[in-house]
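Re: [ENG-882] Designed sequences occasionally contain unexpected residues at chain ends

Forwarding the minimal case from QA. Structure tokens:
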């Protein structure tokens, strides 16, 4: 209720033409204000939050979460999911397809431009290393332990190095595993890196890893890998295949097939030409599809203008 009152005060003060809100649990403030002030309501949806929180964390008041989530979806004038997979879930919840517009996550092309960041490589002592990289908060289901096993095996060049840009609850276990297998000097975990400093680290990657993904997500890190022209290995889930094609702009493997994933990484490690070709094609995909925040802003503004113009016509 406090959130609703704050939003209502903002509407009274600023007199907006439209409301745009990012969906969250138990959140009906945008829908209520849209109805109260007779404003068009656009709702960005990044995940089915009730399902996600129930699976990955403790969720209280599940029934209330489920009902309010569906109410916000169904009440919006336009729902903006980040993948076609998520769009289908929203349609199954009762939202008509003509009120659903998919807008994937994007990237800032100025910040995430390809290049060789020799300075960062030197700072991390990665000169002349073949760098396998991952960005994010690494958890058990990312299967990063499989990459450390791969480092210790015969299928990667001896100069291979695993760089994790981030942190996570399995950090200690991964470091223990690397020590046990004798590859401690071939693993670097940076800890949390400020958002504006991520790109130079990713430029160090020779192979960018997306080892696991939830079925409905539009992984921001993957689009950044693409923009930076990195060679990507990722699972062949429906949402990933909305952006990547196996052998064309990435190598895709069956989800949770650790052996196939390791084989794909090994293949890229041995073939610099393939890495370059896939990385270039990934960058070209971003440019061709305009997977940028600027494009997303223009798409949302065009939707908003459509509703505002329709409202103006009704008032004549």
């Amino acid at each position: 209720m406090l959130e609703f009152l704050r939003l209502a005060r903002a509407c009274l003060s600023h007199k907006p033409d439209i409301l745009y809100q990012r969906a969250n649990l138990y959140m009906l403030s945008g829908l209520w204000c849209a109805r109260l002030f007779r404003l068009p309501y656009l709702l960005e949806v990044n995940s089915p939050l009730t399902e996600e929180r129930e699976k990955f964390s403790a969720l209280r008041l599940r029934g209330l979460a489920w009902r309010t989530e569906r109410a916000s979806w169904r009440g919006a004038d336009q729902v903006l999911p980040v993948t076609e997979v998520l769009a289908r879930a929203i349609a199954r919840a009762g939202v008509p397809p003509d009120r659903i517009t998919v807008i994937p996550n994007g990237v800032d092309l100025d910040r995430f431009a390809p290049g060789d960041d020799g300075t960062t490589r030197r700072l991390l002592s990665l000169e002349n290393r073949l760098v396998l990289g991952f960005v994010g908060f690494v958890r058990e289901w990312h299967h990063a332990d499989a990459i450390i096993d791969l480092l210790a095996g015969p299928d990667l060049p001896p100069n291979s190095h695993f760089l994790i840009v981030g942190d996570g609850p399995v950090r200690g276990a991964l470091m223990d595993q690397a020590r046990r297998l004798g590859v401690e000097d071939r693993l670097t975990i940076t800890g949390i890196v400020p958002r504006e400093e991520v790109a130079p680290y990713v430029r160090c990657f020779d192979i960018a890893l997306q080892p696991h993904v939830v079925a409905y997500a539009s992984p921001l890190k993957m689009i950044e890998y693409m923009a930076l022209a990195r060679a990507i290995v990722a699972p062949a889930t429906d949402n990933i295949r909305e952006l990547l094609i196996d052998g064309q702009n990435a190598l895709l493997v069956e989800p949770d097939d650790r052996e196939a994933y390791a084989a794909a990484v090994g293949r890229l490690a041995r073939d610099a030409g393939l890495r370059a070709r896939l990385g270039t094609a990934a960058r070209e995909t971003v440019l061709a599809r305009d997977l940028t925040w600027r494009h997303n802003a223009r798409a949302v503004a065009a939707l908003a203008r459509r509703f505002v113009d329709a409202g103006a016509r009704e008032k004549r």
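QA comment: On inspection the terminal residues look reasonable. The chain has two domains: 2-9+16-106+293-315, 118-289. Proposing we downgrade this to a documentation issue.
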